[in-house]
Automatic annotation (TrEMBL):
It comes from the Eukaryota. Residues 61-146, 195-253 form the Gelsolin-like domain. This is Gelsolin-like domain-containing protein. Residues 281-305 are annotated as: Disordered. Pfam families: Gelsolin. It comes from Sporothrix stenoceras. Residues 292-304 have a biased composition (Polar residues). Residues 281-291 have a biased composition (Low complexity).
Length: 406
């Protein structure tokens, strides 16, 4: 059970009654490393040795590499592990920095999510504790995650795994596909473009974005451009459409602006899909508006930045506010664990080198309790990305969050 009232009460947790005294010790690290050393996914001679982007999907409790051609494509019924290894420094003194993301689809099962989280910790051990760990939720990815991919594609379905089965196998008959393309606010680079499968109904359309329709009742592929979409979104949609074109599309690719009369064909096809194939009203609505399937906490949160300390120096685990507002790296003490709430953009857990075993063992539990309380207070706290860094291995994204606070 998490402590009550914002994690500030300390009586529920007595370190003397803890059974985690070996967590974080040298013995614990050796045991976990030996386990990681037997995982085929990590032991390919490349992971931890060369920079690059590596993606694995959880399939039947196993870590299965995603082929290079599939990197950037995620299914909402699955859980994934993504490793970004990058060079730090130059020439012969260059080392590798690592960021590990475990991505949880909105329809993933508990066993898949649990396996992804466990294997993320194992991969961190394999990398000698040098990695930043991120928990990514489909509905609200972090800016750091979005920047990994020129475009992030999310499709419905998944792999048969664990106790559940979500079918991604091709169906004999063609099914209508509607994709929504938009630029996610907050991404700092050319990344941040999301291609998200949505329900193939007229109400899924939105004036701000671009949509691609591959309808079961048509031999053409359609791009529907909302009247407020950006030129960049139009260009990205054109790239996606070219990837989808096949010889079966004898009608070719048709680009339709929302306000031109020809765009009514998209409404008609979607209306037929919504009504089960029967002819339905195809009247074009004057405006379309629906929430994006991927939210951005960067622009919706109104809470201030806060720095909290997790410490058991008194003999009991306590959680106390250190700074209400901006913070710098000087505010962190290597003897403890700290939680940095970057005003809703991301919740960071910073682990000091001298933090106790109990403090290190509780970081994810405390962070999850923290975001749950935000959700209980009416905020979208449950959508906030959560990440952990270790002293001396702070990621660029973490350091940028402190610079922005200064």
């Amino acid at each position: 059970m998490a402590p009550h009232n914002g994690l500030v009460h300390t009586k529920e947790y007595d370190i003397k009654d803890s059974n985690v005294e070996l967590i974080g010790t040298e013995i614990d690290h050796r045991v976990k490393y030996q386990s990681a050393a037997t995982e085929p996914a990590w032991n390919n001679g490349v992971v931890g040795v060369q920079p690059g982007l590596f993606v694995w999907r959880i399939e039947d409790f196993q870590v299965v590499p995603v082929p290079q051609r599939g990197v950037g494509l995620f299914y909402d019924g699955d859980s994934y592990i993504v490793l970004h290894s990058y060079k730090v420094g130059q020439n012969e003194r260059a080392t590798l920095g690592h960021e590990i993301f475990f991505w949880l689809g909105s329809n993933t099962s508990q066993d898949e999510a649990g396996t992804a989280a466990y294997k993320t910790v194992e991969l961190d051990e394999f990398l000698k504790g040098a990695a930043t760990q991120h928990r990514e939720i489909q509905a609200s990815p972090s800016a750091a995650f979005l920047e990994l991919f020129p475009r992030l594609t999310i499709r419905r379905g998944g792999v048969a795994t664990g106790f559940t089965h979500v079918d991604e196998a091709p169906k004999p008959a063609k099914k209508t596909l509607l994709l929504r393309i938009f630029k996610q606010p907050g991404a700092r680079t050319d990344g941040g473009v999301v291609v998200h499968e949505v329900l193939a109904v007229p109400s899924s359309l939105d004036d701000d974005d671009v949509f691609i329709l591959d309808a079961a009742g048509s031999d053409a592929l359609y791009i529907w451009q909302g009247r407020k979409c950006s030129p960049m979104e139009k260009a990205k949609a054109a790239d996606v459409a070219q990837d989808l074109l096949t010889p079966a599309h004898t009608g070719g690719l048709q680009v339709l602006a929302q306000d031109e009369g020809r765009a009514n064909v998209v409404i008609r096809l979607l209306s037929q899909e919504a009504s089960g194939g029967f002819e339905a009203s195809a009247a074009t609505a004057p405006s379309y508006s629906t929430s994006r399937p991927v939210a951005s906490t960067r622009h919706t949160s109104q809470r201030p930045q806060k720095l909290w300390r997790l410490s058991d120096a008194s003999g009991q685990l306590s959680f106390d506010l250190v700074r209400d507002g901006g913070a710098s790296l000087r505010d962190f003490d290597g003897r403890d664990v700290f939680l940095w709430d970057d005003a809703g953009r991301e919740v960071w857990v910073w682990e000091g080198r001298g933090a106790s075993a109990a403090e290190r063992a509780q970081w994810l539990r405390v962070a999850q309790a923290y975001v749950r309380q935000l959700a209980a207070s009416g905020e979208d706290g449950h959508l906030t990305p959560v990440a952990k860094v270790r002293e001396g291995y702070e990621s660029p994204a973490f350091l940028r969050s402190l610079q922005a606070a200064a």
